[in-house]
Amino acid sequence: MTRTPQDRSGEPNPLRVLTLDRLKRRTSMKWRTYPEDVLPLWVAEMDVPIAEPVVRAVTDALHLGDTGYPAGTDYAEALAVFAGKRWGWSGLAVERTAVVPDVMLGVVEMLKLVTGPGDPVVVNPPVYPPFYQFVEHLDRRVVEAPLGADLRIDPEVLEDAFRRATGTGGRAAYLLCSPHNPTGTVHTATELATVAALAERYGVRVVADEIHAPLVTGEARFVPYLSVPGAERGLALMSASKGWNLAGLKAALALAGPGAAADLARMPEEVGHGPSHLGVIAHTAALRDGTAWLDALLAGLADNRRLLTGLLAEHLPGIAHLPGEATYLAWLDCRALGLGDDPAEVFLSRGRVALSSGIPFGTGGAGHARLNLATSPEVLSEGVRRMAAALR
Fold first, then answer.
1. Cβ(230)–Cβ(194) under 8 Å?
2. Nearest one of 117, 130, 42 to 362, comparing CA atoms
């Protein structure tokens, strides 16, 4: 297992490479949703150059004309090696994996395998808004099991949700966000073992979204859900998308525990037509050859997390913020500021800085906002300055 309290890779901090003028030339959602005078610190895109091994792999494929359909197990093999080195997990079985278009579409396919129309899916709000959107679009019913005041899974609340979800018969699933978005909580091995035991007791199938797994800093340790005792019937989704800023290069992996292999085998063959071949190449290169870049990024994110804590204490002491152990997202409790249920709207209209509204994150989201700190220290500092100015 690799921990990165301080980068020793020799790579430059990717968060300090790009100027704001260069970033504004981008045409993705982060930089095109709001007017040019708005500083975007919202959607999960990082202000970084792409790791050179990824650029090289994709460029080589383009020069070769290798732009067909994905094939083979290179992606899964690269993830298995990465998981062994990074997390000390040797249990990722390549034969129990499948390439899917991206993590959330993979979640949809996994939920189709283990639930039916109208069945309940348990989530832990405040949580990534597409958990609600995709589940409801799939004609499943969301059952909330809110995080505790410490922003961790409350086993009693989770058990009550499982009891309610299974009380009328039928099938139920639990959509686990690990590490948790938006709080940055890293679930411990003990917590995940409790989840697995409860899931088995109530017959709930666990589908773990582990897209932020590479983005754990400091002394925290990411534990793959499928590695804990009792998780044999679990399913998980992983990707290099968040760790290496590859959302535009679509590809992810679905993983099954030994007791879920038959479920994964039932996934329709056409689902594998959705991923991008260039995406698979990019994600494979990131996992195989992009760890030095990742370590430099993690060190930069740790610095930014400390910077944000100091900036908030100095300029916005009314905001309560528990620094996360993972992701590049900060969950800000703005209720003491008296800005109503949607402080992000106030920061946007008065301060011209865009954060993600807390309301779509479900119960516990009102009065909160999510800030993306994967940017330069200068941009992060300017963002907080604008937020403070919005209160004057």
1. no
2. 130
- Residue whose token pair is 């093999």: 77
Give 150-195 pLDDT, tens digit per residue. 999 999 999 999 999 999 888 999 999 999 999 999 999 999 999 9
Compute the distance between CA of residue 238 and CA of residue 213 in angstroms, rounded to an integer. Answer: 8
165 CB-near residues (< 8 Å, 6+ apart): 120, 121, 122, 143, 172, 202, 204
Res. 5: pLDDT tops 70: no
Q: Compute the distance between CA of residue 63 and CA of residue 230 in angstroms, rounded to an integer.
A: 47
Dist CA 192 CA 176 (whole Å):
10
* pTM (global) more than 0.85: yes
Instruction: Give the span between the Cα atoms of 186 and 218, in whole angstroms.
Output: 11
Q: Count other C-beta atoms under 10 Å from residue 109's C-beta.
A: 22
pLDDT category, 8, cuts 50, 70, 90? low
**Is the bond into 317 cis (omega within 30 degrees of 0)?**
no
Q: Please tell me the distance from the alpha carbon of residue 134 to that of residue 140, in angstroms, as a whole number.
A: 9
Using an 8 Å Cβ cutoff, are 330 and 371 in contact? yes
- The gap between the terminal CA atoms of the chain, to the nearest Å, is 47
Cα separation, 217 vs 238, whole angstroms = 18
> Alpha carbon of 243 to those of 73, 104, 214, 297, 336: distances in Å?
20, 16, 6, 9, 33
CA dist 239 and 129 (Å) reads 19
pLDDT of residue 169: 86
What letter represents residue 271's amino acid?
A: V
| Amino acid at residue number 67 | T
pLDDT at 370 over 50: yes
pLDDT in tens, 26-83: 999 999 999 999 999 999 999 999 999 999 999 999 999 999 999 999 999 999 999 9
Residue 300 buriedness (CB in 10 A; 0-12 / 13-18 / 19+): buried
Torsion of CA 33, 36, 40, 44, to 10 degrees: 40
Q: Minimal CA–CA distance to 147: which of 331, 296, 6?
A: 331
Q: Which residue has the higher pLDDT, 337 or 2?
A: 337
Confirm if 325 and 179 have CB atoms less than 8 A apart: yes
